[in-house]
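Issue 218. Parser rejects a valid record. Input:
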Amino acid sequence: MRINTLKPAAGSRRLRLRVGRGASAGQGKTCGRGVKGQRARKGGYHKVGFEGGQTPLDRRLPKFGFRSDIARTRAEVRLHELEGIEGVIDLDALKKAGIVPVFAERAKVVLSGKIGKAVTLKGIAATQGARAAIEAAGGRLEEAEAAATADDKGAGKNPGKGKAGKGPAKAKA
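Output the parser choked on:
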C-alpha cells in the first residue's frame, strides 16, 4: 500500500450531484431551484435573519443584559485561597500567586471556605463575613492609601472645573 493508492471505502462517499444535465438526470433545466424568484437567481439568497420585510425575530424580542467594562479590572478572592500565600498579602502578591488576573486593579475577599492561619491584607477589600473570619483567625486588614479611597468616591477628579468641565468660573468686572 502506498499513499498515492489510498481510496475511501466503497460506498462511503457519494458522487457530487451534477445539475443542469438534462431531464433524465433528475435535476435538469432549473436544477431543483424552481421557477423564477429570488431563490432561483444566482448570487445567494438573503441575509441571515431576514424575514421578507417583516420585523425580524431579533428585533421583536426585548434587549437584555450588558457586559461591564469595569468587571475586567475587578477580582474576587475566596477566603481559603489566602492560605497558600506567605507574608503580607497585597494585590501584587495575589497576582504572583495566580489567584487574580494580571490586569486586575482591585480585589475583594469573600467569605467562601475557611481560613486557619493569621494573614495580613494590605489594600484589599473584604466583605463583612470575610473580615470577621480573618480577624477570628488572628489576622488583620490594613487600609490602602487615602488617595485611593478618595478616588473611589469621585472626589478630586476634575479640580477647579466649573459647570460641564469648562474651566473655572470667570469673575465679572
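Fixed in the parser; the record now loads. The chain has four helices and six strands.
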